[in-house]
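Researcher: I'd like a structural prediction for the single chain below. Treat it as a standalone chain; there are no partners to consider.
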Amino acid sequence: MTAPLRWLALGLRDFAATLVASLIYGTTIALVSFAIWRALIASDLAFWALSLSCGFVFIAPLLAMGLYEAGRRIDQGERPALKHMIMVKGALRADVFYLGLALVLIYLFWGRVAQLVYGLSTYRLHTTVSDFIAFALGTSEGHTMLIAGTVIGGAMAFFTFAITVVSAPMLLDQKTTVFEAIFTSVQSVAKNVWPMLLWAALITVLLLACAATSWLGLALVFPWLGLASWRAYRDLVHAPASTDPVRLT
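Model: Treating it as a single chain, here is the predicted structure.
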């Protein structure tokens, strides 16, 4: 059960070792997220600002590929530079694309599900943040929407977590197929249920803290979590020698 805390500690150490490059990487993600969020708010699309923000977890593993590469190079005794984190040659292959496509489809599906839950909860369109918050927190229909959205979104988020927590860094580190990587990821979660639930909870808490800062907190939290996720992968999966099959601890 203490493994997730160790991953965070190792991720923080790797963050310090790649401070400038990781800060630039994280700040870029944070500024893009903040710009999209502010644009939606300014356009009176408060619902979409919320639903797309919640859906960030579905595409985060793709955005963290550069951080996995940094972790891989640190393991090899190298000091990764920003160019290594931006141009990740190991990610330029079909199996990574297939995983990315699956995550994008899940992300788009979540958007439609969120819209359906919202549409079934009210006949009004709440365009401003204050109106939407008043509806969500001050009415029984809003409470129903929040509960239904949390349950459905949580189930989808944990499914995404289960198929990517190992598979995304594994595809970068090993010459394996997307199906083998996803199977290994799900098997890792199944064999370590309680530690992985704690790991998912820690990720959720840190991302919620970022949401409270209008996503600007991602400048620090995103590279930290990305590097810690690499440590989680290395702890859960032994890198195979030559053509040996993957061995789970």
